[in-house]
Design goal:
By secondary structure, this protein is of the alpha/beta class. It has five helices and eight strands; from the N terminus they run ββααβαββαββαβ. The protein is 28% helix and 22% strand. It is globular, with a radius of gyration of 16 Å.
């Protein structure tokens, strides 16, 4: 696991501690967490149920390595685990397209030192999927690109966030996109006592 500082900028008004498991170099590259693709289960892929089960196991393995190390390094007895929602409104996804969130939430529920807040942030308005470089047949990539305040404008935040120490989890962190910085700021705006960020993958060429 790697530690970094999520730096204050126009999206985020303070520095926040961050962690990531591994660099994300792209599908098929050595050491790349390719299992993340399978947990999205998007229509242009045709993953088997076995592939998906293996991906869930791979994610649980990574969480089992990193989460205990994170809780040792923070000044909190319990971290409430929230998940950065996918780019489109949650109601537009099938349950098997939300397996990253479901797996992270299940891990938090079953692990001492963590509480499940995976339903504390729900996307209600589409945003632009930022990592798609080329059009995908049958997929309309509508919604706005990141701007300061987009998380608050496009998501519902639970009142249970107030007063909690939050571990915000995303699948991939890309520094220049600012989706995660804006989401961290929204958590503070909704009363979080503290926020720590964690991603499975980090995009190194932009970090």
């Amino acid at each position: 696991m790697n530690k970094f500082i999520m730096e204050a900028n126009q999206f985020l008004n303070r520095n926040v501690p961050g962690y990531f498991h591994a660099d994300f170099h792209g599908a098929g590259q050595p050491g790349n967490p390719d299992f993340l693709y399978k947990l999205k289960n998007d229509p242009h892929h045709n993953w088997s149920q076995q592939n998906i089960r293996y991906a869930i196991n791979d994610l649980n393995t990574v969480l089992g390595i990193d989460f205990p190390e994170i809780i040792k390094q923070v000044e909190a007895s319990t971290l409430t685990v929230c998940v950065v929602p996918r780019a489109k409104a949650e109601a537009s996804y099938r349950p098997d397209q939300l397996l990253f969130k479901a797996t992270v939430g299940a891990y938090a529920r079953s692990t001492p030192g963590f509480a499940d807040g995976s339903d504390f942030i729900i996307r209600h308005t589409n945003t632009r999927t930022t990592h798609l470089r080329n059009p995908v047949d049958g997929f309309e990539n509508d919604g706005r690109m990141p701007y300061p305040g987009i998380a608050s404008d496009t998501c519902n935040f639970s009142a249970h966030i107030r007063g909690r120490d939050i571990l915000l989890v995303d699948d991939i962190y890309t520094k220049t996109v600012n989706i995660d910085e804006d989401m961290v700021q929204a958590l503070f705006d909704n009363g979080a006592r503290s926020v720590v960020f964690y991603a499975i993958g980090n995009t190194p060429k932009r970090f």
